[in-house]
Specification:
Helices cover 40% and strands 19% of the residues. It is of the alpha/beta class and 392 residues long. Strand 12 (198-202), helix 8 (208-221) and strand 13 form a beta-alpha-beta unit.
C-alpha cells in the first residue's frame, strides 16, 4: 500500500530547492520538488527544449499538455545565442516565455556525439563548434557559469558520457574524470547566484562496481539530486534496467533520482518500478515529426496507408484536442504531404500522452496500485487500436 513519506527539507523559500517524498509503492516513488519557478510533481517526464524550444510547440501548448518543467541544453545555448546574451535579455525563462521550472543539461551527452570534433583532457573539453567550426572550451566551471547565466532551476554537473559497449578501462577513466568534474562543479555552484540546484551524474557504463563507486562518491560530495547518465546509449534494455536496479538503492532516498535520456513509455514504467523519479527524451518530439503517435493503444504510424480512409480520431476519449478532434485520414494526409501542421499536431499528441502517462503513474503510486496500472497499460499497448471504439 502507499505510505506517506517524511518531509525531506524545510518548506521552500522562493529561491530554494527542496524535495518531498509523498508516497511509495514497492520501489516506486511519488514526490515533488519545489523551485523558485514552481512545483514539479514526480515521477515526471521533462519535454526536451534543447535550443530553448520544444520543437514545433509554443510554450503555452507545452504547458497545456500538462508539463511542469522543460529541459534546455548548455552546449547548444552557449554556442547560439550565447549564455551572456540570454542573461542580458532577462534569463532563459523570460527569453523562451516559460515562467515554470527549467532543467539544463550540462552538454556532456552532446560532446559524446561530437567524438570526431572534440578532445577530452583533465581540465576541460575542447571541441569544434558544429555551427561555424570555431574552437571552444567547456570546463566544469564554465558549464556551471553558463547554467547560472541562463538562470536554471536545476543545473547538471559536466560529465563524460561513453557509448556502450566500451572497454572497462575506458569506463573507469570516464567515471573518475566525471567524479573529479563533479567536485569542481560543486565548488563552482557554491559561487552561483541564479541556479536553484545542482545534480551529480552517476557514470560507470554497464559495470556495477564502477556505478556503485560513482554513486557513493557523489553522495559524499553532496548534491540536491542524482542522475544516472550513460544509459540508453546502445545497450539492451535488460542491461539498462539491471544497472538502474543496482544504482538506485545506493542513492539517497531523500533526493530526486533522474534517469537521463529515457525514454520509451515501457522504459519509463520499468524505471519507475525501480525507484526513478525524473525522465527526459527527444522521442515524443522526434517521432511526432516523423509521423508516429504515442497513444494509450500503443504507437500508431500515420505514414501507414491503412489510415488514409479512417475517419476515427487517434483517441476519441483524449483530453488533447489534437488526438480527439482530427481524423486519422487527415493526419495521414498531412504526414504524406509533409505539411508542418502534421508534425505540430502529432508532437502535441505525443507530449500530451507522455504527461497523461505520468499523471496515471503518480495516481497509481498514491493508491498503492502501480503494479496493476503498469500491467493494464502494457496490456492496452499490446491489444492495439484496430478494434477500439471511437470513444473508448
Amino acid at each position: 500500500m502507499a505510505q506517506s513519506g517524511p518531509a525531506i527539507s524545510p518548506a521552500p523559500t522562493p529561491d530554494a530547492f527542496s524535495f518531498r517524498l509523498l508516497a511509495t509503492d514497492g520501489d516506486a516513488r511519488r514526490g515533488e520538488f519545489a523551485t523558485a519557478h514552481g512545483l514539479v510533481a514526480t515521477p515526471v517526464f521533462m519535454p526536451v527544449g534543447t535550443q530553448a524550444t520544444v520543437k514545433g510547440l509554443t510554450s503555452e501548448t507545452v504547458r497545456a499538455t500538462g508539463a511542469d518543467i522543460v529541459l534546455a541544453n548548455t552546449y547548444h545555448l552557449m554556442l547560439r545565442p550565447g549564455a551572456e546574451r540570454v542573461a542580458a535579455l532577462g534569463g532563459l525563462h523570460r527569453f523562451m516565455n516559460w515562467p515554470h521550472p527549467i532543467l539544463t543539461d550540462s552538454g556532456g551527452f552532446q560532446l559524446m556525439s561530437l567524438s570526431q570534433l572534440r578532445k577530452v583532457a583533465d581540465n576541460c573539453v575542447t571541441f569544434r563548434s558544429h555551427i561555424d567550426g570555431a574552437m571552444v572550451e567547456l570546463s566544469p566551471e564554465r558549464a556551471v557559469e553558463i547554467q547560472n547565466l541562463l538562470g536554471s532551476d536545476v543545473a547538471m554537473q559536466l560529465d563524460e558520457c561513453l557509448r556502450l559497449p566500451a572497454p572497462r578501462r575506458e569506463l573507469e577513466r570516464a567515471m573518475r574524470l566525471s567524479l573529479a568534474w563533479a567536485e569542481r562543479s560543486k565548488r563552482a555552484f557554491e559561487r552561483a547566484t541564479r541556479c536553484g540546484a545542482l545534480f551529480g551524474i552517476v557514470q560507470g557504463g554497464d559495470d556495477p562496481q564502477l556505478r556503485l563507486e560513482s554513486a557513493r562518491a557523489l553522495t559524499a560530495i553532496g548534491f540536491h539530486g542524482y542522475a544516472i547518465g550513460g544509459l540508453a546509449v546502445g545497450e539492451p534494455q535488460e542491461v539498462m534496467l539491471h544497472t538502474i536496479a543496482e544504482v538506485a538503492p545506493a542513492l539517497p532516498a531523500d533526493r530526486p533520482r533522474y534517469l537521463m535520456g529515457v525514454g520509451m513509455p515501457d522504459d519509463i514504467l520499468a524505471a519507475v518500478a525501480r525507484g526513478i523519479d525524473m525522465f527526459d527524451c527527444v522521442l515524443p518530439t522526434r517521432n511526432g515529426r516523423h509521423g508516429l503517435a504515442f497513444t494509450r493503444f500503443g504507437p500508431i504510424n500515420l505514414k501507414n496507408a491503412r489510415h488514409a480512409d479512417d475517419p476515427r480520431p487517434l483517441d476519441g476519449a483524449s483530453a488533447c484536442p489534437a488526438a480527439r478532434d482530427y481524423s486519422r485520414a487527415y493526419l495521414h494526409h498531412l504526414v504524406k504531404a509533409n505539411e508542418m501542421l502534421g508534425a505540430i499536431l502529432l508532437t502535441t499528441v505525443n507530449m500530451a500522452y507522455y504527461q497523461e502517462l505520468m499523471a496515471g503513474i503518480r495516481a497509481a503510486i498514491e493508491a498503492g496500485g502501480f503494479a496493476d496500472f503498469s500491467a493494464q497499460t502494457r496490456e492496452a499497448w499490446t491489444r492495439g487500436d484496430m478494434t477500439c471504439a471511437q470513444g473508448n
